[in-house]
Design a protein that fits this description.
This protein has about 270 residues and is α/β, with parallel strands linked by helices. It is built from 11 helices and 9 strands. The protein has a 7-stranded mixed beta sheet.
Length: about 270
């Protein structure tokens, strides 16, 4: 059955064997793993995941592709090696399928246009996977790991939950249809909320980070004045030994956690 890729769903099907192998290897997939695949497409990655995982749960929004996959993997579905879920990944709740924190992995070639939403959902909104192996736009992968040593809201939003690593570049020619830009595989491992004691601290961390990056030309000290008092900021800078001229992008995740914790303890909002 022929299928034409739908631009509205960000469909670009991966056809690189080395990239497909790398995604499975990066995830350390074993027979004891339950793997969620986002947008299985025509099943190239699905096929490899089924061969290694205990079970694959593939979430596909395109009904036409669901029908193709049902036929292609009829035997694997009957053997419960593969479960197809027709629906939007942004509405998918792992708990509905018995998946709880740290008890499953995500391996997927995801649509560029919802990359940020997918990362946010599975790191902070629903039961967390232990590992995420994502094929994303190359520029996004580089920002996630802060390859230029400049942090961003995106990189910090990932690093506060897990450990991201840039795995490999995947050129645009290895997709059908070919996108306009290159992609890259990024692995996020050891995912948890262990850096936070409660939901209040978790929410406040993002309040602080978003405030710190609100005005890129301003130094950190000035940006933080939007959420707390000047004397609190002065005390914090002295206690943590921060440079008066430091900018948000130059601070690593460990220092960010100390900043957030200090301001949470002394918060006025």
């Amino acid at each position: 059955m022929l299928h034409k890729a739908k631009k509205s769903l960000g469909q670009n099907f991966l056809k690189s064997e080395p990239a497909l192998r790398m995604m499975c290897e990066a995830g350390n997939i074993t027979s004891s793993d339950v793997v969620v695949e986002i947008g299985p497409g025509k099943g190239a990655l699905t096929n490899k995941l089924i061969a290694q995982a205990g079970k694959v749960l593939a979430v596909e929004k395109d009904r036409a592709l669901v029908e193709i996959l049902k036929e292609k993997f009829k035997e694997e579905i009957e053997e419960s090696k593969l479960q197809l879920v027709e629906g939007d990944i942004l509405s998918f709740d792992p708990k509905d399928y018995g998946l709880v924190d740290g008890k499953y992995k995500i391996v997927a070639n995801i649509p560029y246009n919802i990359t940020g939403a997918i990362i946010k959902r599975f790191l902070s909104e629903v039961s967390q996977p232990s590992t995420m192996i994502l094929l994303v736009q190359k520029e996004v992968a580089e920002r996630i790991v802060a390859r230029d040593n400049k942090e961003s809201i995106l990189s910090l939003s990932v690093k506060v939950y897990g450990e991201p690593k840039y795995m490999m570049k995947v050129g645009k020619r290895f997709f059908s249809p070919s996108p306009k830009v290159d992609s890259a595989i990024v692995a996020i491992k050891n995912i948890s909320k262990s850096k936070f004691k409660n939901i209040g601290e978790e929410n406040y961390f993002f309040t602080v980070v978003k405030s710190a990056f609100a005005h890129k030309r301003k130094v950190l000290k000035k940006n933080l004045e939007d959420i707390t008092q000047k004397d609190t900021i002065e005390s914090m800078f002295k206690e943590l030994g921060l440079d008066q001229k430091v900018r948000a992008e130059d601070i690593n995740i460990s220092i960010w956690l100390k900043i957030s914790n200090y301001l949470y303890t002394h918060r006025i909002i």
